[in-house]
Protein 1
Amino acid sequence: MLEGEFAFLHGEEILRAGEGSYLYVPKGTLHTHDYVGESTGRMLMIQTPGGLYERFFEEVGKPSDGEAGPPVFEDHPDVAGIRATAAEHGLEIPQPDAG
């Protein structure tokens, strides 16, 4: 993490990571992250081997306008489209547990 504090779901464990932290997520491990800090947050992400998922992020990503999106992924206006694009790139975004 370069700046700020993030919470990561890594498998079934929730980890908090701040500036200077490093997190390794093995391929195939369910994971997500959320910014939980008070000020600006920045992180550097590296995927190896390269070339696997960059196109997915290019297709669904958009520049930040400073406004946060929906806090729950399922509330995103194009969640079905994002899941479909993920599947095209060999990624799975599972449905949330009903609970």
Protein 2
Amino acid sequence: MTTKKRKITAEELQRQLDANPEYQKMMKEKEEKMRIFRAELEKDEEGLVQEIKTKGIDIDSVWDLVNINHPFLDNKFIGPYKEVYSILVDHLDKPHHPRIREGIIRALTEKDARDIAKDKLLDNFYNETDKNLRWVLANALTTILTQTEKKKNPDIELVKKGLV
């Protein structure tokens, strides 16, 4: 004999979760871990953000420079930021949390960054051991390299496709 499970509404589920002390404890712990993680990231990129602000670009995070023209994102910063490419390139060689490094790389994923960022991104690509960051670097290089340069660096496409 099978028993039919009663369906509940989202409202009923939320009431059950609100009344469940174990769930509430788990959520508070999760929120505290996220608060600590965000604080660590903020401290990690503090110097980078301050350097960028000296160029007149008001950001709170390097991530404010990523996807700035995306129609569904509410970005703090919108506009060109060519004057900070050199700062971003310098920070590629500084020790940053992988999440901040990813933001730096993605902020350099602009055709206009090609001349200043290409060599450093290539160096980082061939020396990167983190699989995710290597893919992010491959993605950036796919955007900024010419077709001839891409052919000279076939590993980029292999990494981007997840084949290595």
